[in-house]
Design brief:
- This protein is of the alpha/beta class.
- The chain is built from 15 helices and 16 strands.
- A hairpin with a 6-residue loop joins strand 9 and strand 10.
- Helix 3 runs parallel beside helix 5.
- Belongs to the glycosyl hydrolase 1 family.
- GO terms for molecular function: 6-phospho-beta-glucosidase activity.
Length: 477
């Protein structure tokens, strides 16, 4: 251990998602995915929650994922920049529709498989460990249209085939895997999280929790397959984390905050402990929900528990039972939250809470006693290029400095953390809004919300700052 608490083999790096960076949305045989139907503007949110009017891109709409930042053609240039910062790891995702364009094809698409071979080879050439998410907010559209996506048990079998295909292909290159990105997002953005589309009269809660069961079984099968095919690999789950504070010490507020946390913990409880918790069973009963299980599902869940807990942390949340306080709900984030008067907010209304990061890490480790991996954390901001061509993102450095320091404190508290891959080390398309203006990177990409720009890359001030953080293993903040 260093005096600043980070283990000597700590995995410093960054995190990306295929659908937010690759572009080339129909190139080399790739099929359409859910995110390819999500334009910028007002329609995006409506589609994200499951109100989808078409299974094809519409005329007159701008779809940022179709080009994104063209990582598909520029990954070597970008990886060279990550290597210059000293990255030990890069979290990426594989696009299911690059491997199986329709999701249920009999044979995988060789061109798609080769792309990820080349990508992983390039990372390994630079000494960067690939950390790979199997499903990160993109379901092949054919599966949505034909089967109803994750509401249908058929997707369990198809996901298992997809998982086994990529484990077998990349077993010598990838040692860190994750099953579903932010699996709890299924409850907040059902189309984004699980490709769910709703019709008039649907019991949305029933569909969401049935889809959740299918994803949890699929996750367990993927864990089992990973352990069999790559015995020395580690495979984890991934939670959109951030603890919920009670607005007051009124026991009703405290209980509601616990319920809000459990809404997210439910998924990780099953993936980490291998069974449905009692509070979830009561929730299903109280809400008239019946989860259809097949014989053997409970055994599968028990035997398919994850090796580590991956999580994203951007800020904490707060809740209240007081109707007057609830009028202050912030719309800035996917997670509806009462505004916390003790915290500053980002330009997009997200609370900034470094102490909450330490609390959340402790909370997760106390609950699961498994290694944690911080696979997303960062600040979305509108960066400006100065007349001298500089990007002085001191506000990002300040956010990251405080959060990395808090993570160091959590490690001193006894929390085991494998690594830290900050979100969007190069500017990417925002998952929630589809904007390019909401930038997270150490590297600026010349592209705007309407798709204009050269796509040229430029280092921001934070580039050299993060380089020094990695060089010093977290001692020089």
């Amino acid at each position: 251990m260093t005096k600043n608490s980070f283990p000597k083999d700590f995995l410093w790096g960054g995190a990306l998602a295929a659908n937010q960076v690759e572009g080339a949305y129909l190139e080399d045989g790739k099929g359409l995915t859910t995110v390819d139907l999500m334009p910028t503007g007002k329609k995006r949110w409506d589609i994200a929650i499951g109100n989808v009017e078409s299974f094809k891109p519409l005329e007159g709409e701008f779809y940022p994922s179709h080009v994104a930042i063209d990582f598909y053609h520029r990954y070597k240039e970008d990886i060279a920049l990550f290597a210059e910062m000293g990255f030990k790891a890069l979290r990426v995702s594989i696009s299911w529709a690059r491997i199986f364009p329709n999701g249920d094809d009999q044979e995988p698409n060789e061109a798609g498989l080769k792309f990820y071979d080349d990508l992983f080879d390039e990372l390994l050439k630079h000494g960067i460990e690939p950390v790979v998410t199997i499903a990160h907010f993109d379901v092949p559209i054919h599966l949505v249209e034909t089967y109803g996506s994750w509401r249908n048990r058929k997707l369990v079998e198809l996901f298992e085939t997809y998982s086994k295909t990529i484990f077998t292909r990349y077993k010598d290159k990838v040692k860190y895997w994750m099953t579903f990105n932010e699996i709890n997002m299924l409850l907040h953005l059902p189309f984004v999280g699980a490709g769910l589309v709703f019709k008039e009269g649907d019991n949305k809660l029933q569909i969401q929790y049935q889809a959740a069961h299918h994803q949890l079984v699929a996750s367990a099968l993927a864990v089992k397959a990973c352990h069999e095919i790559i015995p020395d690999a580690k495979i984890g789950c991934m939670l959109a984390a951030g603890m919920t504070y009670p607005y007051t010490c009124n026991p009703d507020d405290v209980y509601k905050a616990m319920e809000k946390d459990r809404e997210s913990f439910f998924f990780i409880d099953v993936q980490s402990r291998g069974e449905y918790p009692g509070y979830a069973k009561r929730f299903f009963k109280d809400n008239g929900l019946t989860i259809e299980m097949e014989p053997g599902d409970e055994v599968l869940l028990k035997n398919g528990t994850v090796d580590y807990i991956g999580f994203s942390y951007y800020g904490s949340r707060a809740t209240s039972t007081d109707p007057e306080i609830l009028k202050q709900i912030s719309s800035g984030n996917v997670f509806a939250s009462v505004e916390n008067p003790y915290l500053e907010k980002s330009e997009w209304g997200w609370p900034i809470d470094a102490k909450g990061f330490r609390i959340t890490a402790n909370q997760l480790y106390d609950r699961y006693q498994k290694p944690l991996f911080v696979v997303e954390n960062g600040l979305g901001a509108a960066d400006e290029v100065t007349a001298d061509g500089e990007i002085l993102d001191d506000y990002r450095i300040e956010y990251l400095r405080k959060h990395i320091a808090a993570m160091g404190e959590a490690i001193k508290d006894g929390v085991e953390i494998i690594g830290y891959t900050s979100w969007g080390p190069i500017d990417i398309v925002s998952a929630s809004t589809g904007e390019m203006k909401k930038r997270y990177g150490y590297i600026y990409v010349d592209r705007d919300n309407e798709g204009n720009g050269t796509l040229n890359r430029m280092k921001k001030k934070s580039f050299n700052w993060y380089k020094k953080v990695i060089e010093s293993n977290g001692e020089n903040l």
